[in-house]
């Protein structure tokens, strides 16, 4: 494969390395889950050609960048988060030429492209791991992973008490080439995802090279999977007592496999590589940490650019909780000079239209469908709140259609490995991964010419892009309008603070430059003085009482944007 196939986004190619335009500081970044976005070849599985054909839709939607979940060569034990070859595209998604064409076309449309990087673990089908198993104990390649003898008289017990995020032991025993039971290897996720040993220089070298490979291909950045997990405490000590409760890490970095201080040296090295390239290439950390203060460590000026704000994602639709997480997030990012980020949905959690459809406190995973009408109403209000905050926002494919989670997928259709490892107790991620509807009717509602790898519900057609386009009351047109206002209005996205105003209970009112956002999180309408000219509302409002200063009725579960 030749290098420099796709030019950086036009308008930035002449930028001197290190020049800062800050495109990412307030960018709206759209997550494409390639399996489920658009199927170009009709085999029931989304692919890069499908994404490429739909780029004009994303441009029209008004987002700044696209983040693609993994499309690399992979046995798909964890939907591509098990990578066998970091420099190859899985045939189910296309070829490197398709990736090049996608990057090229996205840039031509003014869209940046962020790819997923999975450095914590590879697939068990990765050449290094296969050879490590084949060569048996003593193989130098075993040093690149965490192989250990088991405990117990015959090594029959795992080397320590760590549990996999997907349930069960974080260790799997190998069989030696002569057929006898051998050492164990560590996998914080599925057994098909062995963890790399980041203390080994070959691992660090390899990932520096992989970064360059994709930067040379023209990508604008990376989303770093499990960014908090790469470094493990020396000696892999037992976790003891608290078990799975500590999966998120602890506020003092005291979990031996997550959020260890050693990860930051890796990101400092990566930052120097990113900065060598023109056009401001960025990286965003997927770091599940217990506090936003710990998250801020990943985005110090010489480390990564952004980190997902999972505390925000996990907050329920309650004004006090929302205000607190917004304040804490902004305060945590200010000292490190990084933009706050905001996200409501992604491919690992129940879609927010469903999370908000029931009582507060459901957590990030639920199989309860709740009240769909209420959930959508709140989801729309939550989106306008998110898009009014200073910093960068992430939109997960299909949320612009107001899609709910598919909570009643038949067990035999499910593919999420955590569903099987957790005995069906808490692995519900397939519900947010159902292919999205483009058309009212037809095979897989326009997803592709064939079927769809997860079954779509019967009502999918009425939620399609086709059905919603041009309908001013639709969620799609709300997103389009919101993103267009956000682009034109100086008070949105930029800056690093909001000015809170007095508000009735359950209501949030905050001001930005030239702009006010009013949010009613309660189930009843409230009366407030209209703060300015109405810009946009997440639901129907009485247009008769929106004159500045007039008493305005802010409906239940509704957000209104005002120009002041
Ligand atoms: C986080 C990804 O978002 C998730 O889908 C995946 O299962 C784990 N990391 C393991 O790679």
Summarize, please.
By secondary structure, this protein is α/β, with parallel strands linked by helices.
Structure write-up:
The chain is of the alpha/beta class and 564 residues long. The protein has 3 domains: 13-122 and 221-482, Glycosidases (TIM Barrel), CATH 3.20.20.80; 127-186, Oligo-1,6-glucosidase, domain 2 (Alpha-Beta Complex), CATH 3.90.400; 498-563, Golgi alpha-mannosidase II (Immunoglobulin-like). It is 24% helix and 15% strand. It has 14 helices and 20 strands. The strands form 5 sheets. Strands 11-10-9-5-2-1-13-12 form an 8-stranded parallel β-sheet. The chain has a 5-stranded antiparallel β-sheet with strand order 14-15-16-20-18. A 3-stranded antiparallel β-sheet has the order 6-8-7, with no helix packed on it. The longest helix is centred in the middle third of the chain and has 17 residues, at 201-217. It is globular and about 80 Å long. Residues 1-5 and 10-20 have low confidence and may be disordered. The protein binds 1-deoxynojirimycin (NOJ). 1-deoxynojirimycin binds next to loops.
Dominant shape = globular
Largest sheet: 8 strands, parallel
Helical residue percent band: 10-25%
Hetero compounds: 1-deoxynojirimycin
What structural category arises from helix and sheet content?
A: alpha/beta
Under CATH, the topology of the largest domain can be stated as TIM Barrel
Strand order, main sheet: write it out: 11-10-9-5-2-1-13-12
The CATH architecture of the largest domain is Alpha-Beta Barrel
Portion in strands: 15-25%
Average pLDDT reading? 93
Number of domains: 3
CATH superfamily of the largest domain: Glycosidases
CATH top level label of the largest domain: Alpha Beta
């Amino acid at each position: 494969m030749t290098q420099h196939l796709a030019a950086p986004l036009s308008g930035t190619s002449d930028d001197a390395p290190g020049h800062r335009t800050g495109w990412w500081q307030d960018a709206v970044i759209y997550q494409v889950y390639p399996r489920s976005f658009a199927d170009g070849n009709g085999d029931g599985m989304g692919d890069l050609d499908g994404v490429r054909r739909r780029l004009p839709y994303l441009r029209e939607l008004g987002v700044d960048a696209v983040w693609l979940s993994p499309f690399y060569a992979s046995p798909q034990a964890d939907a591509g988060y098990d990578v066998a070859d970091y420099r190859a595209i899985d045939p189910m998604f296309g070829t490197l030429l398709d990736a090049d064409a996608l990057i090229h076309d996205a840039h031509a449309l003014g869209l940046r492209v962020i790819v997923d990087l999975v450095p914590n673990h590879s697939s068990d089908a990765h050449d290094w791991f296969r050879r490590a198993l084949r060569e048996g104990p003593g193989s130098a390649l075993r040093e690149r992973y965490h192989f250990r003898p088991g405990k117990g008289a015959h090594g029959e017990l795992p080397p320590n008490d760590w549990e996999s995020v997907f349930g069960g032991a974080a260790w799997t025993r190998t069989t030696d080439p002569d057929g006898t039971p051998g050492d164990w290897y560590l996998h914080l996720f599925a057994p098909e995802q062995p963890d790399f040993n980041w203390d080994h220089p070959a691992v660090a070298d390899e990932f520096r090279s992989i970064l360059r490979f994709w930067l040379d291909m023209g990508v604008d950045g990376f989303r770093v999977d499990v960014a908090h997990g790469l470094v493990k405490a020396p000696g892999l000590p037992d976790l003891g007592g608290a078990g799975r409760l500590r999966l998120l890490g602890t506020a003092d970095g005291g979990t031996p496999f997550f959020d260890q201080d050693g990860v930051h040296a890796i990101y400092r090295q990566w930052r120097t590589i990113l900065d060598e390239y023109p056009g401001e290439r960025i990286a965003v950390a997927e770091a599940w940490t217990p506090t936003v203060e710990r998250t801020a460590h990943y985005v110090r000026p010489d480390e990564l650019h952004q980190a997902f704000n999972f505390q925000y994602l996990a907050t329920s639709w309650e004004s006090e909780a929302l205000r607190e997480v917004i304040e804490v997030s902004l305060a945590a990012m200010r000292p490190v000079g990084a933009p706050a980020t905001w996200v409501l949905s992604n491919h690992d959690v129940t879609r927010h239209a469903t999370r908000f459809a029931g009582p507060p406190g459901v957590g990030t995973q639920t199989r309860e469908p709740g009240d769909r009408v209420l959930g959508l109403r709140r989801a729309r209000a939550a989106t306008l709140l998110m898009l009014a905050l200073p910093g960068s926002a992430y939109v997960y494919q299909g949320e612009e259609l107001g899609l709910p989670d598919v909570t009643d997928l038949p067990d035999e259709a499910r593919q999420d490995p955590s569903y099987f490892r957790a005995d069906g107790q808490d692995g519900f991620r397939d519900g947010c991964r159902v292919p999205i509807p483009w058309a009212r009717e037809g095979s897989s509602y326009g997803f592709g010419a064939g079927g769809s790898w997860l079954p779509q519900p019967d009502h999918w057609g009425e939620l399609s892009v086709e059905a919603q386009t041009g309908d001013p009351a639709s969620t799609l047109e709300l997103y389009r309008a919101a993103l267009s206002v956000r682009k034109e209005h100086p008070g949105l996205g930029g800056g690093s603070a909001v000015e809170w105003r007095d508000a009735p209970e359950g209501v949030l009112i905050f001001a930005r430059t030239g702009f006010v956002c009013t949010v009613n999180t309660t189930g009843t309408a409230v009366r407030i003085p209209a703060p300015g000219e109405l810009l946009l509302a997440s639901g129907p409002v009485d247009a008769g009482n929106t004159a500045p200063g007039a008493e305005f009725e802010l409906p239940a579960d509704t957000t209104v944007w005002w120009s002041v």
